[in-house]
Design a protein that fits this description.
Elements (H helix, E strand, L loop, with lengths): L44 H19 L4 E2 L4 E2 L2 E7 L8 H17 L4 E5 L1 H7 L4 H17 L13 E6 L3 E4 L14 E10 L8 E9 L3 H16 L2 H7 L3 E2 L10 E2 L1 H19 L4 E2 L5 E3 H7 L1 H4 L8 E3 L2 E5 L4 H8 L11 E10 L15 E11 L4 H18 L4 E7 L9 H18 L3 E4 L9 E7 L5 E10 L2 H4 L4 E2 L5 E2 L2 E6 L4 H12 L12 E5 L5 H13 L4 E3 L6 H10 L4 E5 L1 H6 L1 E6 L6 E5 H13 L40
Helix pairs in contact: 1-2, 6-14, 11-12
The structure holds one RNA strand.
Length: 668
RNA sequence: GCCUGGGUAGCUCAGCUGGUAGAGCAGCGCAUUCGUAAUGCGCAGGUCAGGGGUUCGAGUCCCCUCCCAGGCUCCA
């Protein structure tokens, strides 16, 4: 599974087996350990996955006697289980086959899952040789003691821990529920092995994790595996190589891409678009350097809080310099350069600012996670009474821009004040309420992540769903409650008093690089016409048509289209194929008939049949209109079911209208 | 950083238990001039990631290093 930026929901069903699955639905107890496993029925997919994880654990214990079991929760589309193998052994890919084989034997035996309930002491002795299980039981016992007095279940103290047994010698601490028999399983696939730390902490022992997927039927499994392949096919790194857009030279270093001519062109188009949208919406461009004295980042607090993500220092003439991990300190310096009046607010500073962040080598992932990135970054300084309005229009602005790219499905996450925070509770409430109200106005669905905000700011993350349903985080908005104080920012109000401005951080695309990756994957490389390096490929049938081909190119050029003429020294079919594979929006063929009547034969991307004898002028106007409307060839409404011979200028939506909808999945 | 899997021609890959490197595509040359997803022939291209070791002999076995991918963790 390509997991780029996709945050799978990690349910930890197994860490609190104390909440057993009474089928009376009474499991609405206080949530202690994060997201609950949803209520499950035996048919429920999560039950199948979790039971499959158990069978996997059983197989592993069979094959590696003495293996220690950690946890085996359900995750999005599947499950995993963590083990510690005897003698520090590790799984290899080949082991997956053996485990798979053993699992299928267990399934064939139709072993029943038998639920047992034990006291803490009994459980301790049953799992005496399972250190991780003991740790879990221990935690449960502590929790039990803490919540004991108000527990609702009368028998809770006597049977606080549940376990499931199947076969003669396999028992696992587990809340359940499970399917009744292993024979109800079987539509699974073990996917990969991975190292994972106990409780996700790299200071704790590293365990061996196996990921798998399981489904209720063979069709569902096949379907899922097909989706995995589709995701792989859309991988932006693959597309980037195929389309000759960018690469990551090892000579430069991990996470530092170079953009080839076509990739840089697309990038420039994205940046130009962002810039013009901002300038048209009341933002002022600024420009700041890539590096600054470390003292600046001390003052901003980055060296205190963010040093782990910063490049190491450079020394120059006795002073220590750092590459900037964020643009905000520099934008603040612009604000603070002179006294500001309330008349200047809101002041919206915008920069395509390139920042550098240290990411550990293991987390780098194509353009989605790099060590040098360009943010379409803005910092907005405003007064208290402007805050809500600014945030509302900001969210609307962000959504409008994202929709221009044919992205249609959004949701958001509002992260509120964490336990450790700076500033006044009152300010946090004002800022958080302002963000919430902006979300309410926007109409997009959101959820609140209590206590998940940064220590200095409540934040609002906007996610989008791509054509195959994956979620990507793009935009982030934060109301900063720290930096204005740290830099002692102020403005003079109408009352002639100094006031502290509010400061909003905001990256719209997130980063240009990541957004590029999202678009490539969303469109599987078949970008909307305005973003394609070659918009029209012109193919003369024979040499004799090259002069006319050049005229067609010229006409297109006048309309601002990017064209490529592919001369006739290869067979037509070969040339067509090449440009189809390159996802060129329009491939036009010009031959005898076209030369005499000034027409072209048009192959629209995504279309099945070419349209012959399309008037040249009408064709150029149509494509130019499509560029202006920022739409794709696939967007065109079918005018006449069996290919109407001419239909020019089907769409004239102005730029930035946001009305352009893309079917998104239209590419095959 | 840690775990797992990789690194053979620009790309995708083959190369069995060690015997001295191969295909398709791409590239280049020549021919082909063709109305909608691969024209033919030819040529060139590799210190098999790098270094060390075992061996008569290493792409194949062992060790170290580098790089890439999938995870863990973190976020844009």
């Amino acid at each position: 599974m390509a997991r780029l930026g996709v945050r799978g929901d990690r349910r930890t069903a197994e860490v609190d087996p104390i909440r057993h699955d009474d089928s009376d639905g009474s499991d609405q107890t206080v949530q202690v350990t994060g997201p609950r496993a949803r209520r499950s029925t035996p048919e429920d997919i999560d039950t199948i996955r979790h039971s499959t994880a158990h069978v996997m654990a059983q197989a592993v214990v069979d094959l590696w006697p003495g293996a220690h079991l950690a946890i085996g929760p359900v995750v999005e589309d599947g499950f995993y289980y963590d083990f510690e193998l005897p003698g520090g052994a590790r799984f290899t890919d080949d082991d997956l086959g053996r485990i798979d084989e053993r699992m299928r034997e267990i399934i064939a035996e139709g072993q029943p899952f038998v639920r047992e309930e034990h006291t803490v002491d009994e459980a301790m002795s049953i799992f005496a040789d399972q250190p991780f299980k003991l740790e879990i039981i221990d935690a449960l016992a502590g929790e039990q003691a803490a919540t004991g007095p108000q527990r609702s279940s009368p028998s809770a103290s006597s049977i606080p821990v549940s376990a499931y047994r199947n076969g003669d010698n396999f028992v696992d601490l587990c809340r359940g529920p499970h399917v009744e028999s292993t024979s109800q399983l079987g539509h699974f696939r073990l996917l990969r092995v991975a190292g994972a730390y106990w409780r996700g902490d790299e200071h704790l022992p590293q365990l061996q994790r196996i990921y798998g997927t399981a489904w209720e039927s063979e069709e569902a499994l096949k379907d899922y595996l097909g989706r995995l392949e589709e995701a792989e096919r859309r991988d932006h790194r693959r597309i980037g190589a195929d389309m000759d857009l960018f690469h990551f030279p090892p000579e430069i270093g991990g996470g530092l891409p170079v953009f080839h001519p076509k990739g840089a062109l697309i990038r420039t188009l994205l940046e130009d678009f962002s810039r013009s949208e901002h300038l048209g919406s009341g933002y002022q461009p600024v420009w700041t350097p890539h590096t600054a004295k470390a003292t600046l980042f001390e003052k901003s607090g980055h060296l205190q809080w963010y040093a782990d993500n910063m490049y190491p220092p450079m020394e120059m003439e006795g002073a220590e310099y750092r590459l900037k991990p964020m643009n905000c300190p520099m934008h603040i310096l612009i604000y603070a350069n002179r006294q500001r009046s309330y008349r200047e607010l809101p002041m919206r500073l915008f920069e395509l600012g390139t920042v550098y962040r240290f990411e550990r080598s293991g987390v780098l992932h194509g353009l989605a996670r790099v060590r040098g990135l360009t943010q379409d970054d803005a910092h907005i300084f405003c007064s208290a009474d402007q805050l809500v309005g600014e945030l509302e229009s900001l969210v609307a602005f962000v959504l409008r821009v994202l929709r221009t790219f044919g992205l249609t499905e959004f949701d958001a996450e509002l992260s509120t004040r964490p336990e450790k925070f700076v500033g006044e509770v009152e300010d946090w409430d004002i800022a958080t309420d302002a963000l919430r109200s902006a979300l309410d106005v926007s109409g997009i669905p959101y959820k609140v992540a209590e206590g998940e905000g940064a220590f200095y700011a409540p934040k609002l993350d906007i996610h989008l769903r791509d054509a195959i349903g994956r979620r990507w985080q793009v935009s982030t908005l934060q109301v900063d409650l720290q930096l204005p104080q740290r830099f002692d920012l102020s403005y003079v109000g109408a009352d002639n008093e100094r006031h502290r401005p509010y400061m909003i951080h905001r990256a719209l695309f997130g980063s240009v690089e990541r957004f590029f990756a999202v678009l490539l994957e969303h469109y599987a490389g078949a970008l909307p016409t305005w973003l394609m390096p070659t918009q029209v490929a012109i193919l003369p049938v024979r040499d004799a048509h090259e002069v006319y081909g050049a005229e067609v190119a010229e006409e297109c050029g006048y309309a601002g289209l990017r064209v490529e003429v592919d001369s006739a020294d290869e067979p037509l079919g070969t040339r067509i194929r090449r440009h189809k594979l390159a996802k060129v929006p329009y491939i036009v063929v010009v031959g005898d008939e076209d030369m005499t009547s000034r027409t072209v034969g048009v192959n629209r991307r995504g279309g099945s049949k070419p349209e012959r004898a399309v008037d040249l002028g009408a064709f150029v106007a149509m494509v130019a209109g499509e560029v202006l409307g920022r739409s794709s060839p696939e967007d065109v409404v079918v005018l006449s079911p069996d290919h109407g011979p001419r239909e020019a200028g089907q769409r004239g939506a102005g730029p930035g209208q946001g009305g352009v909808t893309s079917s998104g999945g239209a590419t095959r």
